[in-house]
Each structure stands twice: as C-alpha cells, then as structure tokens.
Amino acid sequence: MIASLSGTVQAVRLDSAVLVVGGVGYLVHATPSTLSTLRVGSEASLSTTLVVREDSMTLYGFADDDERAVFESAQTVSGVGPRLALAMLAVHTPDGLRGAVAAGDVKALTRVPGIGQKGAQRLILELGGKLGAPSGVPGAAAARPAAGDHADQVVDALVGLGWSAKLAEEAIAVVLADTGADQVGSGDVAVVLRAALKTLGGHRG
Fold it and tell me: Where is the Helix-hairpin-helix DNA-binding motif class domain (predicted)?
C-alpha cells in the first residue's frame, strides 16, 4: 500500500493532482479543500491510500492521516465506495462527520450528494463507534473577498459531485450574498465550495 507521497506538484485539477516522486508522476484524487493547498512547482506531502479494483488502481490523497482514516472507515459501510467517501470529506471535515454520526444528524449527512435519508441512517448505524468522538467544534470558513472571479471552478466541482449547473450557480450566489463578497477569489474556491454544498443540502427532501 502507498501510505504517503512527497514530491513536486506537477499539475492541479478540479478533482486531482499530479505529484512527481523520484521521476514518476502519480495521479492523486483529493477533495477541493486538499487540492486548494497545492501549488504547481512547489513541494507537497500527502497521506494516501491505494484503492485496487479488478480493472483499476486509484490513488487518493489527504491533507493528513486523520482524513485518510475517516475515508477508509466510511467505506466499511455497505454501499459506500471511494468516490462517495471522498464526497463526504468534500462536504464535511473529519470532525464534522464524527459529530454528525455521533448526534444522529441525518440532515447534515444528506448534504452529501449521493446520500439520501436511508443512506444517512445506514451511516449512523454502521459508523457509530468507528470514527471516535469529535476533537473540536466543526465550523464552515467564510469566503473572503479577493481579486478575480473563480466561480466557474466551483460550478464545475459541484456538477462533478452530482448537482446541476443551475443549482450550483444559485448556491454560489447565496454564499456570496451571505458573505458580502461579489466574486470568488482564487484562494477561496474550497471554502466557497464547502459553503455551497451546505446550502445545496436544503434542496434534498
């Protein structure tokens, strides 16, 4: 198993990055929050896990070992694969997921695209006790006004997670209105995405 990677960031995409380690480029899938910390040409270290399937080997990267542990634990729940587990971490921090599971907060869990009422209840039932207690109080970071509008990146990421472009644009507008910003700065893509996902949770019945 590839437990970690340290190398030079060659490329950063909406849902993945390429790290060059020892002359080999590794494609690593990660959350928008993790990807927002990477800069092309800079050195980076990620905790990783390799998911092996009959026809593929996919590498997932995380900001720290805690995120990786939650990612792996989430996949012990029936019906949860790596893509859905990563979507869970795109919406919630590890502590946010711990808190939602511990409190039986179905509404918080259904904010994740692909998780409905029954799926949320299954997560609560099957993950209870596996994630441990939250170490802090989770909170969403507010978007900061910055030069340059990068709303298209947020829209593309939301569409990739299963939302329509129209709903994505409406959610971003709500987030910007709430924070008083008039555009999405280059460093604000991850926090606006997380806030937009929380807003979109209200569209799930």
Answer: 72-91, 107-126
Distance, in Å, from the CA atom of 201 to the CA atom of 44, rounded to the nearest integer, reads 32
- Written as six digits, the tokens of 201 are 């949770």
Which of 91, 171, 100 lies closest to 134, judged by CA?
Answer: 100
pTM score of the predicted model: 0.67
pLDDT in tens, 106-122: 988 998 888 999 999 99
Q: Indicate if the alpha-carbon torsion angle 121, 123, 126, 129 is positive or negative.
A: negative
Domains annotated for the chain, with CATH where assigned, are 4-62 (2.40.50.140), 65-127 (1.10.150.20), 151-203 (1.10.8.10)
